[in-house]
Design brief:
With 356 residues, this protein is an alpha/beta fold. The chain contains 13 helices and 12 strands. Bound molecules: nicotinamide-adenine-dinucleotide (NAD) and thymidine-5'-diphosphate. InterPro entries: dTDP_Gluc_deHydtase (IPR005888), NAD(P)-bd_dom (IPR016040), NAD(P)-bd_dom_sf (IPR036291), Sc_DH/Rdtase_CS (IPR020904).
């Protein structure tokens, strides 16, 4: 038996593949375009492992995907492949439309043709799990209840709009063609192998490099943080026992303002790798111009997943953030290798003009 994972060289996809193969022997075909966010070094422990078949390619390449499906006959697909960074979607939305919308559409078309050719038993057992985000629901005001699966879609950034479109396409393939789909909408992840353009790894990397820690606006925007391995365990559980056509929200009940996150990262670094001058890393915090259209608050109500499938996160924010900071301290080589010229160009582009 085999599963096909897309985007499995990215942050969450790679954690998923590593955890999957640590736990069972079912092979993984890993289709990834290796954009700036995809990194084969993350998967180097799988070199020579016959259970991991890496394919460099695009989910929007219909011919390639059709060929892979015929060749490997996967019993399930987990679709992580996406452009995922809100700030990049503001600077240049086109890649988001291309991969998240057109790519998902082409993938669904190839999967529909493949699934239609399976025998009845295999058709029944087949699953297409689409990995999505809480950002499709828009922004919450203080005191509003957390997002449930029936919350209205109100995406506010080109990223969240493109993910919302892909969720709708996935839903329609179930409703119209009967494709056995599952969708998960998860809150902000953090943990090992997180590309240092996102809040937590950027703060760790900048702090250690003696650079400013750029907090957008007043730093009081709230995100709901989940340790990446808990997201992966939720996906495995939904794949195993989720009801087709259903949506499951995934979250850790860890709502925190950005400034609190940055201060926590600084305090952990003060403890684990104190600055040479003995001063606190929090001195490096710099307030910069806010992100346009910045969503104020996200919060996930994950009770459906807990009630129906018995899933709960294993980490608290305290245990997860400590593991994460320690991982970055122990894996400086990975960090240096992902900070390529294009990474430096991005940092220049995003933070130039956001004066303190
Ligand atoms: P990421 O940007 O780290 O990784 C995305 C991966 O997809 C990369 O390896 C990239 O090379 C690959 N990719 C991009 N375009 C592709 C294409 N056209 N064909 C094949 N591969 C392609 O993203 P991530 O943080 O790991 O997120 C994975 C998924 O989870 C995304 O769908 C994202 O929307 C969703 N999600 C992320 C978070 C989060 O906090 N990071 C939270 C909820 C949901
Ligand atoms: P991010 O990690 O980009 O995730 P998302 O935008 O998908 O939630 O950002 C998390 C929060 O941190 C978000 O409110 C924006 C804020 N932020 C900063 O304040 N400074 C930064 O340099 C970055 C990258 C993000």
């Amino acid at each position: 038996m085999t599963i096909l994972v897309t985007g499995g060289a990215g942050f969450i996809g790679a954690n998923f593949v590593l955890d999957w193969l640590a736990d069972n022997d079912e092979a993984v075909v890993n289709l990834d375009k290796l954009t700036y966010a995809g990194n084969l070094q993350t998967l180097c422990s799988l070199q020579g492992d016959q259970r991991h078949i890496f394919v460099h390619g695009d989910i929007g390449d219909s011919e390639l995907v059709a060929h892979l499906l015929q060749e490997h006959q996967p019993r399930a697909i987990v679709n992580f492949a996406a452009e995922s960074h809100v700030d990049r979607s503001i600077h240049g939305p086109e890649d988001f439309i291309e991969t998240n919308i057109v790519g998902t559409f082409r993938l669904l078309e190839a999967v529909r043709a493949y699934w239609g050719g399976l025998d009845e038993q295999a058709r029944q057992a087949f699953r297409f799990l689409h990995v999505s985000t809480d950002e499709v629901y828009g922004s919450l005001a203080a005191g509003e209840p957390a997002f449930t699966e029936t919350h209205q879609y109100q995406p506010n950034s080109p990223y969240s709009a493109s993910k919302a479109a892909s969720d709708h396409l996935v839903r329609s393939y179930h409703h119209t063609y009967g494709l056995p789909v599952l969708t998960t909408n998860c809150s902000n992840n953090y943990g090992p192998y997180h590309f240092p353009e996102k809040l937590i790894p950027l703060m760790i990397v900048n702090a250690l490099a003696g650079k400013p820690l750029p907090v957008y606006g007043d730093g009081q925007q709230i995100r709901d943080w989940l340790y990446v391995k808990d997201h992966c365990s939720a996906i495995r559980r939904v794949l195993e026992a989720g009801k087709t056509g259903e949506v499951y929200n995934v979250g850790g009940w860890n709502e925190k303002p950005n400034l609190e996150i940055v201060n926590r990262v600084c305090a952990l670094l003060d403890e684990l790798r104190p600055r040479a001058d003995g001063k606190p890393y929090a001195e490096q915090i710099t307030y910069v111009t806010d992100r346009p259209g910045h969503d104020r608050r996200y919060a996930i109500d994950a009770r459906k997943l807990e009630r129906e499938l018995g899933w709960k996160p294993a980490e608290t924010f305290e245990t997860g953030i400590r593991k994460t900071v320690a991982w970055y301290l122990d894996n400086q080589e990975w960090v240096q290798n992902v900070q390529s010229g294009s990474y430096r160009d991005w940092v220049e582009k995003n933070y130039a003009g956001r004066s303190a």
